[in-house]
Amino acid sequence: MFSKILVANRGEIACRVMRTARTLGYRSVAVYTEPDAGSPHVAQADEALQIGSYLDIAAMLEAARRTGADAIHPGYGFLSERADFAQACADAGLVFIGPPAASIAAMGSKSAAKRRMLAAGVPCVPGYLGEQQDEATLSAEAMKLGYPLLVKAVAGGGGRGMRVVHRAAELAGAIASARREAESAFGDGTLMLERLITEGRHIEIQVFADARGACIHLGERDCTAQRRRQKVIEESPSPLVSPAMRAAMGADAVAAAQAVGYVGAGTVEFIVDAELKHYFLEMNTRLQVEHPVTECVTGLDLVEWQLRIAAGEPLPLAQQDVQFQGHAIEARLYVENPYEGFRPQTGRIAWWRPELALRPGVRIDAGVAEGGEVGPHYDAMVAKFIAHGRDRADAIRRLRAALADAPLLGIANNACFLAELLDHPDFRQARLHTASLDGWHLPAPEPSESDWLIAAALVLMVPTPAAPRPASVASFDLSLQQGEQRRQWRATVGGHQLRLQAGEQVHELSLLGQDAAGRWRISLDGLQRSVIALRDEQAGSLELAAGAAVFRFHEPSAFPEARDLNNPAHARAPVAGLVAQVLVAEGDSVAEGQALLSVEAMKMEMWLTAGRAGRVKTLHVGPRESVAAGALLVELEDN
Fold this sequence. Notes:
Helix content is 24%, strand content 32%. It is α+β, with helices and mostly antiparallel strands. Among the domains are: 4-97, Rossmann fold (3-Layer(aba) Sandwich); 126-195, ATP-grasp fold, A domain (Dna Ligase, domain 1); 449-558, Glycoprotein, Type 4 Pilin, CATH 3.30.700; 560-637, CATH 2.40.50.100. It is globular, with a radius of gyration of 26 Å. α4 (83-91) packs antiparallel against α5 (101-108) and α12 (392-405) runs antiparallel to α13 (415-422). The strands form 10 sheets. Strands 14-13-10-11-12-15-22-20 form an 8-stranded antiparallel β-sheet, sandwiched between helices. The protein is built from 15 helices and 40 strands. The longest helix is centred in the N-terminal third of the chain and has 16 residues, at 171-186. Residues 562-637 form the Lipoyl-binding domain. Residues 1-442 form the Biotin carboxylation domain.
């Protein structure tokens, strides 16, 4: 038994665990690093203690000792799948709310896990699982398997340390890159090879086992909508899975869990080919990010199940008692710009009010708050939108509405991309495969004519300390810029009324007021709308939630730093982060497009290439140095 739970994690999952812990009467302890001192999970806990790193096992155990916590919930990521952490908790007399260390170790190595699955009769994709890791051996084994194939780190997950190889010439680079990323993320650069199931679907089964030998599954989640092996949208049930297929996959998942003496919550991931045959990929020995969709369709609280099983209770249900209702879909909100190569973003959250989107069937799990800072230190996912409906169409409609009603402003994010993906014919008709999104090159959404007009009205009529609402004045010219587009009107303001004219087109707008939630009510030619907008006087911009469009009302030349962004002789940091690798030195000659260095941020490695041919004039950074977003890293000159 236990009474106080230390959550060895941060952000959304820490908040999620604490909610259920409080409901069941447990006290909670948060740990946090310096960048997270003001995070919501710290304020939500009964007690909180600063540590140096979420990967520091000794610090976690010391935090439990100091606060009197007698159980530890690892969440997901960080230490959640570290067998040594589970063992250290047991050795310290703490309840580890997860599987035994031996089970984690058995599934922690993807190659060892596949060998166990083959022995247990669970179907697996052909591959190389050997201990010989030299490039010659891996090349020879790749030739036996044939291309395309996957190079995969045997440790960790989340798509890191994984590379797709289409031809032999790409193998050496993929091995080096995957090994480097795996060593950085997991401290283990061991690799395996696996035949690539082209146009495969990613379907996983949620399993639960208790300490008395009982094990059941709670149905499947379809996680096919991925980008670079990172899940974007998950749903349950899968639109492809029949009752017979669910039973077969469920039985294999249970067999996989029992083969390693599993206890607690786990997920067995399968890849499904075009003939709907399933093959074991890996087992995640923890709660998954996407567990809310299973909670929605089963009506169960999976964290509650984790806590009850960790306390020694039996599984609450037998397999035949598990019922499924409706359809649930989850979308991950990432602070990344889908229209600039999904580049991670950092900065201050100027607007985030998820309560505006809450309605029956909608749930939002978040680990950030308005006014908080998103730095380069951790994952780019800041929230999850979950919708549950009678059927799939219901869930999609509710989810798209929620994304529109709860915008995150101040930092570029993927909300518009998610809404577009949910409405795409390939998603609607379940035609996606795991690599579909990798080939998408999306243009930024174009603001509508009404967006332009409303932005103009808000620029002119919303009062700020730096820009009070103008009194009635004679007509004047107003121009706005959005991206490469510019619009100009003749404007006449009178109190709360605005008249905009461009050529023969005349529009009448009225600012009707602002509600308690901060939304502006605007009349455009007699049609009223509620809008959310963020005005930044210092940047000379107005961000309109509709379409995530940012309009500039100052001339771009007013910002000196903007003039240099497209200089091909300058390589600048795409985001704040850490220099992972430098491939050039001062004086080196480089060709246009040649890789110069990489910056690591939010678990991604981003390469900077030469914008022109020339010679490296100045190298401003070295490996493992921290850099700010936009910092000048490399200067080129003529040879």
